[in-house]
Specification:
The protein has seven helices and 14 strands. It is of the alpha/beta class. Strands 7, 8, 9, 10, 11, 12, 13 and 14 form an eight-stranded parallel sheet that branches. The protein has a six-stranded mixed sheet with strand order 1-4-5-6-3-2.
Length: 245
């Protein structure tokens, strides 16, 4: 059954009306017609299953049969604080971390971040990342679309980190080995971890994170690319404490 994202859907007398960009996708791309079944998810945990009973070039009306709680959500609330990556690497990271069940992503600019985006371009990139997260959620069957924060500076990222999370920092130069650290850490349902840029975080930035309560961790002897480290650690957390395996 085809699946579409409609935030804050309005239902009146059992009818859900779709307008905007999704109409083009429903009618022209997938060529769905009156009598075809589809499902709508609202990105906040609900899914609506129904049948198209009326369609025009500008709207599609769906008669709702079932309202369900969407599946596909991790038992963990993982927040990834990720330094901006070059080129399409950030797009790839958003897509794959969404598939792996990330709850929220906080992009940030550190002293060694490349590119150092001008503020005028940050909004443009942020909007693109939100679209990527929506499409990835639709494809992988998630009921919630992860929050994608607008890019912020490093001190602001530390300040905006959720207070009730286990705080972890991936750092290649030092830190406790991952296996030992996870054994010591009490299993938590809310976790935030920081991953720096390709050039790594500065010593001053690491000390700032430590002062904010982040525990440095080392993933091993090999130096991983920033996007590899993020996705690797997401997978490990989901395997150890979440819903993988």
């Amino acid at each position: 059954m085809a699946r579409f994202y409609v935030p804050h859907p309005q239902i009146e007398n059992g009818i859900l009306r779709v307008e905007g960009d999704q109409v083009k996708h429903i009618r022209r791309v997938l060529r769905l017609r009156t009598g075809d079944d589809l499902s709508i998810f609202d990105g906040e945990g609900k899914q609506y299953e129904g049948t198209i009973f009326e369609a025009s070039p500008f709207s599609v009306s769906i008669r709702i049969r079932n309202i369900l709680s969407s599946g596909g959500e991790s038992t963990l609330e993982i927040v990834l604080a990720q330094s901006l990556l070059k080129g399409e690497k950030m797009d790839y990271l958003i897509q794959k971390s969404t598939e792996l069940g990330v709850h929220r992503i906080i992009p940030f600019l550190s002293s060694r971040s490349i590119p150092l985006l001008e503020k005028s371009k940050r909004i443009e990139r942020w909007r693109r990342w939100k679209r990527i997260a929506i499409e990835a959620s639709k494809q992988c069957g998630r009921g919630r679309v992860p929050e994608i924060d607008s890019p912020r500076d490093y001190p602001e990222m530390l300040h905006s980190a959720p207070q009730d999370c286990l705080r972890l920092l991936l750092w290649e130069r030092e830190g406790e080995r991952l296996k030992q650290a996870l054994k010591k850490c009490e299993k938590r349902k809310k976790i935030i971890f920081i991953v720096g840029p390709e050039g790594g975080l500065s010593q001053e930035e690491v000390e700032g994170a430590k002062g904010a309560g982040f525990l440095p961790l080392n993933l091993g002897r090999r130096i991983l690319r920033a996007e590899t480290a993020s996705l690797c650690f997401l997978s490990i957390l989901q395997y150890e404490w979440g819903d993988i395996g």
